[in-house]
Amino acid sequence: MELEAAMAHAVANEDFGKAAQLRDELKTLRASDSLHVAQQALDDAIAEERYEDCARLRDEVHELIPKRTKSSSTKVTQGVRVDIRSRYVRERSDVAKDEYLFSYKVTFTNESSTVVQLINRKWVIEDDNEHVETVEGPGVIGQQPGAGLSQSPRTASAIATRH
Asked: Is the pTM of this model over 0.90?
């Protein structure tokens, strides 16, 4: 989270007034986040061995996690169809740390009349809170797949995001 990084930076620079201000902002932000509050309550119940509360709190946390765990997107550019399917990976995410992992599969379908090859890519990833993250570079996961007529090479990867 950006506030946590800024607070750590302020502490490292011994700007304790700024660190205290950022701590208070972070505390207010977390207190207004029902998912964070529920996850903290679950963590506390586990640490205090209040197991009778754990199942209820676990269920509450699961109810608060976004229901939209799968998403898809399709775009055709210059005769190449790009289909992306993403999935929230609950078991590899850490709600308490505000870290969420999404896996995705990309299928390229050459609908043009020429052979094509992916040289560079640019993914613009937007979450439900309109936070945008851009990933760009050569190929996809170190590969530069080509596609003949009507071919559909596939790649798969994952991305970790913060709320």
From this structure: no
Per-residue pLDDT reduced to its tens digit, 109-151: 888 888 887 788 887 877 767 778 888 888 776 666 665 555 5
- In this structure, the answer to whether residues 115 and 153 fall within a common structural domain is yes
CB 125 within 8 Å of CB 73: no
Number of domains in the chain: 2
Q: For residue 68, which amino acid is it?
A: R
Which domain covers residue 26, as residue numbers? 2-64
Say whether both 108 and 145 belong to one domain: yes
Q: What six digits make up the tokens of 68?
A: 């939209």
Compute CA 129 distance to the chain's CA centroid, rounded to the nearest angstrom: 11
Angle, alpha carbons 146-150-153 (nearest 5°): 40
3-class SS letters over the chain: CHHHHHHHHHHHCCCHHHHHHHHHHHHHHHHCCHHHHHHHHHHHHHHCCCHHHHHHHHHHHHHHCCCCCEEEEEEEECCEEEEEEEEECHHHCEHHHCEEEEEEEEEEEECCCCCEECCEEEEEEECCCCCEEEEEEECECCECCEECCCCCCEEEEEEEEEC
Do 75 and 145 belong together in one domain? yes
